[in-house]
Amino acid sequence: MILEDRVDAFKELSKFLSNPHLQSSFYPIVQKARQNNSWFTEQNIKFSFSSLAHMLDFLPLWLSSYNVGSKKKKIGVIIPSNIPLVGFYDFLCVLISGNIFIGKLSSSNNVLLPYVADLLCSINADFNNYIYFKNDIKNADILIATGDDNTANYFNYVYSGVSKIIRKNRTSVAIFNGSEKERDYYALAKDIYLYFGLGCRNVSKLFLPVNFDINSLKIPFSKNKFLSFSKSYLDNYDYQKTILKINNVHFFDFENLLLVNSEKIHAPISVVYYEYYDNLSALQKKIKHYQDEIQCIVAHDMLGDNSVRFGESQSPRLQDYPDGVDVLKFLLTN
Predict the structure, then answer these.
(1) The dihedral sign for the CA sequence 259, 262, 263, 267
(2) Looking at the chain, which runs of residues are DSSP E strands?
(3) Domain ranges of the chain
(4) Are the C-beta atoms of 326 and 63 separated by less than 8 Å?
(5) Which residues is 275 bridged to in the sheet?
(6) What is the CA radius of gyration of the chain?
(7) Under CATH, what is the fold of the domain 171-308?
(8) Would you say 245 and 54 are in contact if contact means Cβ atoms under 8 Å apart?
(9) What does residue 164 show for φ and ψ, rounded to 5 degrees?
(10) The 203-209 sheet, strands edge to edge
(11) Cβ–Cβ contacts within 10 Å for residue 130, how many?
(12) CA-CA distance, 154 to 134, in Å (whole number)?
């Protein structure tokens, strides 16, 4: 396939992702995905499809800054299970670069990406020669793997002689400057609640100006429209609340979310940490200290390449590279 063929196929795929319910196969796949992973609700699956469709709308423009050929190397991609279609970006980069995708799926996330792959192959059958799902990855020319810090060490050891991208644990933060309106609080709820807080782009830490009234967030957060509560999430909420009470830790209870004052940035499910600041320059130094752990920053003031507006953290653009590594450039130069 030439590049134009690959681009045209993904543009056609985008049309489906925009309106997946028009396919008779969609709802049976949603049901199968939910049985495979209880965190994958219909609402979250639909949102992931929609956000990826929007991302693909800018595919030709994004590609205009690259010199894309057809390398046809074997790229092994190890995919986690935290959110629906979490491996799609790597899937796109491997195939659009003309390489062969060899995916190793988590046992609790083995439905949605193969489904999308089948759709792509139905659009252009040549992709059948470029897409494979395996239980193990052997003889790969390049590896892309996503996991926690422990699995990252494992991947680095096992694939020591292979060019690779290894991603570790990351999370996202929000910075208030005091000029926010109530609509921003509602938008931030989307950044926090979507995917139950399981994604690296989910906000798990708030940096607030001194004297900020946390209770002003309660109504927008508790009335959010972005979370169909699951038993697993509510069990986590009850558990975390019990632990905080036992340890006599003060918290704000939003009835579906717990806000806890802490200097940490990685919060457990159903908990968001907050911290007050009175000097933006000092805060920026602190953010820089955590830069290898932060995926994106939600803020009105653009504080770097990984900054996004309130409500936009879960709708990444093609140039919002995971862990700050340009995957396509890496594939084209290795």
Answers:
(1) negative
(2) 74-78, 100-104, 131-133, 142-146, 163-167, 171-175, 203-209, 252-253, 258-261, 271-277, 294-299, 307-308
(3) 3-169, 171-308
(4) no
(5) 207
(6) 20
(7) Aldehyde Dehydrogenase; Chain A, domain 2 (3.40.309)
(8) no
(9) -160, 160
(10) 252-253, 258-261, 271-277, 203-209, 171-175, 294-299, 307-308
(11) 21
(12) 19
Helix (DSSP H) and strand (DSSP E) numbers for the chain: 12, 12
Would you say 261 and 250 are in contact if contact means Cβ atoms under 8 Å apart? yes
Measured between alpha carbons, how far apart are the two ends of the chain, in Å? 20
Q: With 90 as the cut, is the pLDDT of residue 306 above it? A: no
Q: CB within 8 A of 291, min separation 6: which ones?
A: none
Quick one: pLDDT at residue 307? 87
Give the max Cα distance, the chain: 63
334 closest CA partner among 146, 167, 154, 143: 143
**Which residue bears the tokens 């590609």?**
63
Residues counted in the chain: 334
d(CA 288, CA 140): 35
Residue 226 has pLDDT above 90, yes or no: no
Class of domain 3-169: alpha beta
pLDDT for 101 equals 97
pTM of structure: 0.93
User: Rounded CA gap, 50 and 274, in Å?
Assistant: 30
Hey, what's the torsion of the CAs at 322, 328, 331, 334, to 10 degrees? Answer: -100
Amino acid at 31: Q
Whole-number pLDDT of residue 303: 65
Cβ burial of 254 (10 Å; 0-12, 13-18, 19+) is buried
Rounded Cα–Cα distance for residues 273 and 230 (Å): 22
Which residue type does 33 have? A
3-state secondary structure of 129: helix
* Mean of the per-residue pLDDT values of the chain: 92
